[in-house]
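Incident log, structure service

09:12 report received: a user says their structure output differs between two submissions of the same chain.
09:20 pulled the input from the user's history:
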Amino acid sequence: MSAKTINPTTWELLFEVPYITKEELEQKIQKASNAFNSWKNTSFEERWNLMKNLVNLMSERKEELAKLDTMEMWMLYTDAQWDVSKSMSNVLYFAENAPKMLESKRFEEWWIKWRIEYQPMWVLYCVAPWNYPVNQVLRSTIPNLMAWNVVMVKHASNVPQVAIALEKLFLDAWFPKWVYTNLLIPASFSEYIISHKVIVWTTITGWDKAWRTIWELAWKNLKPSVLELWWNDPFIALDTNDVEKTVKFALTWRLSNCWQKCNSSKRFIVIESIYDEFVKWFAEGMKNTVVWDPMETTTKIWPLAKEEAIADIDSMIKWSLELWAKLACGWKRIDRKWYFYEPTVVYDVKPWMPVFDEEVFWPVAAVIKAKDINDVISLANNSKYGLWCSIFWDNIEDMNYIASKVEVSNIWINKIVTSYPFLPYGWIKNTWYWKELWERWIKTFCNEKVIVEG
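09:34 re-ran on a clean worker, output below:
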């Protein structure tokens, strides 16, 4: 068994590396455990200097890392450069702020004086997805390393060169060996890892089957886990004098990373006064989207990740149309090698249709008509998922009212959503099991020890 890189336009095998054996995995776990014994005693200054080395190397190798992103994930080259740049920002944020976030805190309640100290746990197992090969890994691992923990990372099997390059970055930045360990392993090895006494936490960003498996293994072994689950974010468009501008925002966010972005908008809830115009411009924009090679600057859509996605899309759209949704454009596989699919817009969507109820991680956008503000809120909340939401309107006061009623973690008003390390998000409905980023994220992986003073 092996991890592979395949050219999406030629089907050529570009790179292949075999998985390690279970015996080799055990050796790596033991070495990571030994590395923890010294890493947990490093100062913030030492770790800060190592993180600066890491960021400097990332800057030097930005083009190389971005090309690997494009080669393996098939991400647009310009987006891949952003993936690296944003990762550098996240590294610096936690490196700079960790001392303040993790400083000891003193309290006096009634007649008792006490303090909280934050201490590391041990070795953490991080399972990373393929859609942002650099950022998704570092967003999880850097806070852990700044909190003195040691990390072992299983990256997605279709991005092995990125996985290897990330581990090399840490080594070349003079991090002690085994503090960050890349694991080239099959998914079946996760049970062995999570059940191991050295592993105390696990995190995963992934599909339904993957995170359920990880959660069950963690639960069975009485170990905490952080799970990023499924999302189905609403984009709310209300009365405006510039519908075309609002549609441009909608197109930008739905097309971002070839639809394969967790916090991109999936359900477009549009007030009926601008609904017909919105659908017209939205479908027109989708039809004019260039679908081809991710290295080409004009490309906006590149191949999907797997063959099964084509059947999933066809089934989802067919079922929704049978339930009286309407097709504005798309619903067709493009006759080229690999898994190209036309950008698709389905409108007059209702809550009982698959394109409304499921996370659509493929080139499909669902447009829903709303009668009034209360209907907008009801439609936005009619989902088992809830993480991000964008609201576009000229009426700020009413937008704030909607923002207070929509059941999501983060809301952006007249802006398309994005993540920053200082903005916490997650832990709502079936979208996320825990909070991520900001101060709460780094403290998640610490022992919050209470010391009562005599």
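09:41 both user submissions now match this output. Likely a transient worker issue. Closing.
09:42 reviewer note: The mean pLDDT is 86. Residues 234-420 form a domain with the Aldehyde Dehydrogenase; Chain A, domain 2 fold (CATH 3.40.309.10).
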